[in-house]
Design brief:
Two copies of one chain form a homodimer. Chain A is of the alpha/beta class. Chain A has helices spanning 10-13, 22-32, 54-64, 68-71, 78-91, 105-119, 133-145, 161-169, 189-201, 224-237, 261-267, 303-315, 321-331, 341-367, 395-406, 433-450, and strands at residues 38-39, 128-131, 151-157, 173-178, 205-212, 240-244, 275-280, 294-299, 372-373, 382-383, 386-387, 408-409, 411-412, 425-428. In chain A, the strands form four sheets. A seven-stranded mixed β-sheet of chain A has the order 2-8-7-6-5-3-4, sandwiched between helices. In chain A, strand 6, helix 11 (261-267) and strand 7 (275-280) form a beta-alpha-beta unit. The longest helix of chain A has 27 residues, at 341-367. The termini of chain A are far apart. At the A-B interface, helix 1, helix 3, helix 7, helix 8 and helix 12 of A face helix 1, helix 3, helix 7, helix 8 and helix 12 of B.
Chain lengths: 451, 451
């Protein structure tokens, strides 16, 4: 054949993506052969029973088939019809036409208004780019920044493997910095300086630092001091910040609140540090993974660089319009006092309350297993427990054996990175509570059997 | 600021994408200031008034909001309800969950059945990858093949700039081959051999040839002999073929028919030439550009290479589900005898008849302008006329002046590539007939005024 594996370059061959790697492939194989699998490998809420918000889905249905508003007047609350009507009129041509490369201006306006409501700061709709999920925004930012094979990006250890995979694909260097497991996975200035210094010695030109807050896979929520420390570090070393904030609505720990990098930058009157921040419709309380909606906001990025971002976006034309509209429904809740509002609040509240209960259940359950220690799941959708690995076993081997024995599919810590000599896995908190309880006890029984 | 233009690498800076370049930016500026613009720069049918197919949109609305089927029983024909029900049950979790990285197996089965119906050949659903439009499939194939800076990809001159832009972005080499304008833009074996020989002398390792059929921007439709010649050429030189077949339903010339590379390969019992073929929901009679649906089919690609394709797909999780379902509606028309069938055939027929009339109108109109010569628009959605450039003017300058004077937005031939010393532009055939007639006479008057 005209292609063989030797035609494929290292950029592709070296790319790793554990979240959908060999353990998941084996889980699918087992499922096809009749086994029941609990998929805890990926944050895919609706695959584990979470219902979509009616507000979102009514708007999408009305935009896909605008005649519905007149065909079925009783089926839609007036505020949903109104939102869809505004969206269609703001789009001019509906879901079937390419939008501007950045996404519909009407929706970018709504995103800017959302940021202003959330943080009390201004946001420029021309600095907002609508993307197919957050992943495509992250990839665009990394593509922009990785100019030569010596360029590096600081990424947390553990990290979400989108970062490592994309940096490899664009042939840059990963500059890993450890998160401090002893202190709720916060970032430590010392550990950041260590990592940067080491990269410098290796001849790496570090361009940016990736921060995931709330943390994936760690479940941490950074406080305001930590966010400000990171901005100070980035400023001192001339780094850009990539702020992955897709779990901003998933905060469970009492008293914790989401502190955006944009807000902290404005509070610090920081004009030097370039910021790319990312949000998504896939997480939070929407859990609309399949619609692929998201955005990237740029701050302190010069106009000639933004023009390059726009050009790259334009090569693949625009993000998908249903995803753009899903994002609109996220940043524009039904109006207070409108017919959809009470239902919206109930649906949203039920989802977040349930996730909070699961976050506690899984962390407590794992901590009760001998040899396990798990930080509180303060936010996001994952537990990342540390556990004692039986001698001679890799964490990947342990996870594969767990799958074979119990049908539970988790991702080994090595897929995210971890301190040498430690072992972890990532499990989503998304299965229903009774399944989570079974899961925890199965893990306990399995682990006991391994020693 | 922590980023400046000097941080951006040549892979990004050198990328060009004329279809959404400075002329389009200027058109948008003029529009905002109140001018009427005729956008002929891009194949975006619904932005120019084409209506979506009811079949497609009913399925999408029902999948976004499944309660509709019971809430508004009268609003939906039974076959649309049935198609949506099958789709939802095939997806297991609806539009809100990530699908398999390749896309829903249920839809890949439907795509394989479509290929079998179209070509009378077998197709393996495991070799089909659902993508956000065809663009993402093309980019995946190019990413796979471009392993080193010496690797080259043969692309037609003129070509659709997605190819040149992506090859630049992945830092490969463009190996341009001329299409034969004197012979309806067919491919010529001599011109292919010339191009390949020249690349060899420049130290380029040519990996694949891109063929766009029907042609963008040329409007050509390749005959079976031409397709077989290309396969023979690829075989002799060990090249893969990237077959961009997104305009396969847009054939206007009497007697012409679409000849897929897959069908020709099977007819030739060709097992050596690796083939990547691409299709989209954005063109044809659907014109659903904003939904971003499409697929890539692999043939004669070894399993270890396919595994790499799958891994790359998995990094950005999956293509958007509404786009996947739009593709389902394209490859699965309403059943014969069902309540949606007659309406579907009428809507489809009207769109294709109208496009055919416009294809003739624009080519005839342009050919009547002194100094213009335009091949018949046998297929696709574009005219690519050759015209006499006034002395001292670039084609870009001519197109910009045309925009300023008339509000007509076309893309200069230099954005696609052309024989040195010739000038062209690309204009879509999509505006309604009365607008097309005005457009042709405005171009004639403008051109006369330039000499």
């Amino acid at each position: 054949m005209s292609i063989s594996l030797k035609d494929i370059g290292s950029a592709v061959l070296d790319t790793q993506y554990a979240v959908r790697g060999p353990i998941v492939a084996r889980a699918q194989e087992l499922e096809r052969s009749g086994r029941t699998i609990i998929y805890c490998n990926i944050g895919n809420p609706q695959a584990l029973g979470q219902k979509p918000l009616s507000w979102t889905r009514r708007i999408l249905a009305l935009c896909e088939y605008p005649d519905l508003a007149t065909l079925s007047p009783g089926a839609f609350p007036a505020d949903a019809v109104d939102a869809a009507r505004k969206l269609l009129s703001g789009s001019k041509h509906g879901f079937g036409a390419y939008s501007e490369s950045k996404g519909l201006r009407f929706i970018r306006d709504a995103v800017a208004a959302f940021i202003t409501r959330r943080d009390g700061i201004e946001s420029d709709p021309e600095s907002i780019y609508l993307t197919d999920g957050a992943s495509k925004g992250v990839q665009a930012a990394l593509r922009l920044l990785l100019a030569s094979p010596e360029d590096g990006i600081m990424i947390p250890i553990p990290q979400y493997p989108l970062y490592s995979a994309t940096i490899t694909m664009y042939q840059g260097r990963q500059v890993g910095y450890y998160l401090d497991e002893e202190h709720d996975w916060m970032l430590s200035r010392d550990l950041l300086e260590d990592a940067l210094e080491k990269a410098k010695k290796a001849g790496t030109t570090t361009k940016a630092i990736v921060v995931i807050n709330p943390g994936n896979p760690t479940g941490s929520v950074l406080d305001a001091d930590n966010v400000r420390m990171i901005i100070g570090f980035a400023k001192e070393h001339g780094l850009a910040i990539l702020a992955d904030e897709v779990y901003q609505d998933n905060i469970y720990r009492e008293g914790a609140r989401f502190e955006s990098f944009a807000k902290a930058m404005v509070a610090l009157r920081e004009k030097d540090v370039s910021l790319f921040s990312f949000h998504s419709t896939s997480k939070g309380f929407l859990g609309e993974c399949g619609q692929r909606g998201g955005y990237m906001e740029l701050r302190n990025v010069p106009a000639d660089v933004s023009a390059q971002v726009l050009k790259m976006q334009s090569v693949s034309l625009c993000s998908n319009l249903p995803g753009q509209a899903t994002l609109y429904s996220l940043v524009t809740p039904p109006p207070e006092g409108g017919p959809s509002r009470a239902e919206y609040e109930r649906e949203r509240g039920d989802i977040l309350d349930e996730l909070k209960a699961r976050a506690v259940l899984i962390a407590d359950g794992l901590n009760a297993i001998p040899g396990f220690r798990c930080n509180a799941v303060a936010g996001a959708m994952y537990a990342f427990p540390r556990f004692d690995l039986p001698t001679g076993m890799s964490d990947e081997g342990w996870c594969m054996a767990l799958l074979e024995k119990t049908g539970i599919c988790v991702v080994p810590g090595s897929g995210f990175g971890q301190l040498p000599g430690t072992a972890h896995f990532r499990a989503t908190i998304l299965p229903p509570r009774d399944q989570l309880a079974t899961m925890v006890s199965s893990i306990a029984a399995f682990h006991a059997g391994q020693h």
